Amino acid sequence: MKFCCYCSAELFYDIPKNDNRHRYICQRCDIVHYQNPKIVAGCIPVWEDQILLCKRAIEPRLGYWTLPAGFMELGESSLEAGIRETWEEANARVEVDDLFAVFNLPYVDQVYMMFRARLVDLKFSASIESLEVKLFKEDDIPWGELAFTTIKETLKCYLDDRSRGHFQLHTGDVIKTDGRYDFIATLV
Amino acid sequence: MKFCCYCSAELFYDIPKNDNRHRYICQRCDIVHYQNPKIVAGCIPVWEDQILLCKRAIEPRLGYWTLPAGFMELGESSLEAGIRETWEEANARVEVDDLFAVFNLPYVDQVYMMFRARLVDLKFSASIESLEVKLFKEDDIPWGELAFTTIKETLKCYLDDRSRGHFQLHTGDVIKTDGRYDFIATLV
Description:
The structure is a homodimer. By secondary structure, the first copy, chain A, is of the alpha+beta class. The first copy, chain A, folds into 2 domains: 1-35, Ubiquitin Ligase Nedd4, Chain: W (Single Sheet), CATH 2.20.70.10; 38-186, Nucleoside Triphosphate Pyrophosphohydrolase. The first copy, chain A, is 15% helix and 40% strand. The first copy, chain A, contains 2 helices and 12 strands, in the order βββββββαβββαββ. In chain A, strands 4, 5, 6, 7, 8, 9, 10, 11 and 12 form a 9-stranded mixed beta sheet that branches. Chain A has a 3-stranded antiparallel beta sheet with strand order 1-2-3, with no helix packed on it. In chain A, strand 4 (38-47) and strand 5 (50-56) form a beta hairpin. Chain A is elongated.
């Protein structure tokens, strides 16, 4: 960020009055340009004992498998965002049961909110965002070809809960250290 | 938004290629300026049967009572944000039990994440952001002087759960219609 999006003047990087951290501030109109984490909302769409995954048609991680999820948009709820992303990535309609996982990714300033959901029917298909959309039984999940650590951890939590016969909310952080991603469950 | 924050050229408002909604796009460098909802993280700090509230020293809703909460910052988790806001608004240290409420406010593009927490000690006090910080028993909560609908609903859910002896995650939306705010619980 170098210029004010309201007046085009140059920004400087300083601590505003009554604040405690550096922000981008406009030299001309004094507006503080705050930056905040983004929400990625998605679903775990299930049909009987199978889970719907999408093979990504876009970077990052093109060609790897993921649960349908994407950035929450202005004017919608996180639940609506999860349902919309499932439609956009898999042409799949779902009914949502509950909020299942809230995972922080502070190294990319994202918070994943994943909902547990049931497919309404089997009319899913690849969209412009997916190369392939497919139902997987537990033994067939392509663990080595999953797109993101959050997706792997969401699936592990889901399958653990299912085998125990009891679903609960999962919270945690994905931490990146020296290029390695570790998951830390919190509030357990 | 009128100018590109990277190159200062004028923005135009159009649907980017492979997208389905209008965005601000730079005429010169083609960068799409996405806008997304923000997370407000906070705590319900309790001491025995009392709840800590803060009287706001800043607009909006200056002089009204709230639970400590504020915008999540880059580089932190939602849990860290809730703990930090409780420290900044009430000089109070807490230990967090669980994520208690996730409420969407699509009319202001915010998602509230409220954590259930216990005060570590009674060394809380008003900060630069609060005129007064005080513990309230259930019968003394100033329902008519609460700052926001989300805060009122969080407190109602908390007290309902407490009276039932069982805490659970609450999800819902605050909807604004003709200047009136309504709360709709979801996934119940």
